[in-house]
Amino acid sequence: MQYEQHPSDLLSRCSSLTTCRPPNRFLSEMRAVVNLFSNILATVVVARWMGELDDERLNLVLVGEGEDEALEPALASGAKG
């Protein structure tokens, strides 16, 4: 015996799909934030592992000082290579 769908069944399914959108948007934004912090952490871990992490500069930038000078050596070393 086959089940015939009633139009009201389709309507209830569609309405339940639209109620899933706001949490999905919130979760999408949370995934983006987690991805950002994961990339930051991975950058610090790899830089430390390679011996290229400047702890003084890292602390200054995290405190909010020395942000203007943070890119100057990186740009200079990129110009050399």
Can you tell me about this structure?
By secondary structure, this protein is mostly helical. It has two domains: 1-50; 53-81, no CATH class. The chain is built from four helices and no strands.
What's this entry about, in short?
73% of the residues lie in helices and 0% in strands. The chain has helices at residues 7-18, 21-49, 55-63, 72-80.
List keywords for this structure.
single chain, 81 residues, mainly alpha, rod-shaped
Secondary structure: elements and pairs:
Blueprint: H1 7-18, H2 21-49, H3 55-63, H4 72-80
Largest sheet: none
Strand content: under 5%
Number of individual domains: 2
Q: Roughly what percent helix? A: over 70%
Radius of gyration: 25 Å
